[in-house]
Specification:
Blueprint: H1 7-14, E1 17-24, H2 30-40, E2 44-49, H3 57-60, E3 68-71, H4 81-96, E4 105-109, H5 116-124, H6 127-132, E5 133-143, H7 147-153, H8 155-163, E6 166-170, H9 177-190, E7 196-198, E8 245-252, H10 258-272, E9 276-283, E10 292-297, E11 303-306, E12 317-324, H11 330-347
Parallel strand pairs: 1-4, 1-5, 2-3, 2-4, 5-6, 6-7
Antiparallel strand pairs: 8-12, 9-10, 9-12, 10-11
Helix pairs in contact: 4-5, 7-8, 10-11
The structure holds guanosine-5'-triphosphate.
Length: 350
């Protein structure tokens, strides 16, 4: 019967549930890694936090039969920090009531902009949650291709690296052995205590989830660029983070040709220039039955992969754009401009 336990199971059911924080900058490879782990582990519950107000990542983990909660529309380390407590409570109650499988570990995938210490604080400050959950580790994914530049450009990357109990270096398959060794040394200098695991093609052992680490405190004084007051702009579309990272989302009901989408993406890249940090989405293309998945990490060439099926009945194209720009309205302006361009392109005879 759901919710009933024999004595041995009871003690197990009452033991605090380990929580792993999976963090790493935008596009570093968190969801890819998570998907690989889901192929091996069915005892997880996932909380996925997205900066944009349209969630894409939860669709990319839908093959797995585990509880998935999406927290979209802002970063849970600042803008929607309060909702993490209620999400964890609901998850615990659902598990106790037998409404979801009796997961043994919760994995929180943060947005790429999150400050891990601010997320950890949620659990540490809530006595009810503290009895029922225990922090296991902070796993930070660092992109071996863009990592060095990202460390220089994005203060969040330094925060995430220094907060890590374990570091996973993604995309090692795309750089030389020497470049990888240099990068590993750089990371060692920034966080000597964190063991490093090198992931190839988005794969790292799922056993990383089971390694427990003592809780560490933030080292103060290192993060002055981050200490600025939160930019709580009240734009209807932009999800403000602690910094000047803003997102906007676009929905598009009609279908277009692949060539038109490509032309429009190229236009978006040239207009946004260096401010473009991340684009991801599902696009409706006339020649395809399923959506075209757009994975675009700023500064790189967009990866466009056809998927066989739409994740659900919603077959609108949707795209999330994340930029680093002082104006919170900027990504929305970009997308509005882009939508006009798409409309014009769609009306132009080939
Ligand atoms: N070659 C290679 N590509 C990778 C690897 N890990 C991730 N990628 C690619 O990197 C892109 C971004 O990966 P995601 O897993 O979506 O990154 P993310 O950190 O979840 O992104 P956000 O949710 O936007 O923060 C995708 O195109 C992945 O296929 C890897 O180890 N090797």
């Amino acid at each position: 019967m759901p919710g009933r336990h024999c004595p041995g199971q009871w003690a197990e059911a009452m033991a605090p549930i380990p929580v792993v924080l999976l963090t790493g900058f935008l596009g570093s490879g968190k969801t890819t890694l998570l998907n690989h782990w889901l192929g091996e582990r069915q005892d997880l519950a996932l909380i996925i936090n997205e900066l944009g107000d349209i969630g894409i990542d939860q669709h990319l983990t839908q093959g797995a039969d585990v509880p998935v909660t999406l927290m979209a529309g802002g970063c849970l380390c600042c803008v929607i920090q309060g909702s993490l407590s209620s999400t964890l409570r609901n998850l615990y109650m659902a598990r106790q009531g037998g409404d979801v499988p009796a997961f043994s570990t919760v994995v929180i995938e943060t947005t790429g902009a999150a400050d891990p210490f601010n997320v950890l604080a949620v659990l540490e400050q809530d006595p009810w949650l503290k009895k029922r959950f225990v922090w296991q580790s902070v796993i930070t994914v660092v992109d071996a291709v863009t990592g060095s530049e990202a460390l220089a450009r994005h203060p969040e990357v330094l925060e995430q690296v220094t907060a890590a109990d374990q570091l996973v270096i993604s995309k090692s398959d795309r750089i030389s052995a020497q470049a990888l060794a240099d990068f590993q040394q750089r990371l060692q200098g920034l966080n000597a205590g964190a063991p490093q695991t090198v992931a190839e093609h988005g794969r790292a052992p799922a056993s990383l989830l089971d390694r427990a680490f003592p809780r560490r405190c933030r080292v103060t004084g290192m993060f002055s660029p981050v200490a600025a007051p939160p930019a709580l702009a009240t734009s209807a579309v932009a999800a403000p983070s602690r910094h000047d990272l803003y997102s906007a989302s676009l929905r598009w009901p009609g279908q277009l040709s692949w060539a038109l989408w490509q032309a429009a993406l190229a236009q978006l890249a040239s207009e946004c220039g260096e401010t473009l940090v991340r684009v991801k989405g599902l696009l409706k293309v006339d020649a395809l039955d399923g959506p075209l998945l757009v994975q675009w990490v700023g500064g790189e060439t967009p990866a466009l992969s056809p998927l066989t099926l739409w994740p659900d009945a919603d077959t609108d194209s949707r795209l999330v754009l994340i930029t680093r720009h002082p104006d919170p309205a900027y990504p929305q302006q970009m997308l509005a401009h882009w939508q006009t361009l798409l409309t014009l392109l769609a009306q132009t005879p080939p």
